Amino acid sequence: MYYENEYGTEHIKSFITEGQFFTDYRSFLTDTPSFLSIQALEDTSCALFTKQTVERLYERHICWERCR
Questions:
Q1: Which DSSP state fits 19?
Q2: Where would I find the Cyclic nucleotide-binding domain in this sequence (predicted)?
Q3: What are the CA-CA distances from residue 64 to residues 35, 45, 54, 58, 61 (Å)?
Q4: How far is CA 9 from the centre of its chain?
Q5: pTM for this one?
Q6: How far are the Cα atoms of 1, 3, 64 from residue 34, in angstroms, in the given order?
Q7: 2 close to 12: Cβ distance less than 8 angstroms
Q8: By the 8 A CB rule, do 4 and 10 touch?
């Protein structure tokens, strides 16, 4: 995941390895568009969860529990 500053310079935010989750958490919490971009460096399969789906998962099963 990366972002570009106002001068067009790319800044790497993080690398995600196989089996990890990723999100722009600030965007998730605030319901605002993400400023982060995602680029796959090899063939990749992703699962997409809406915020509504994640909220339901939090409510339905302890393994999705979040810290408050």
A1: T
A2: 2-61
A3: 25, 21, 8, 5, 6
A4: 21
A5: 0.64
A6: 11, 10, 22
A7: yes
A8: yes
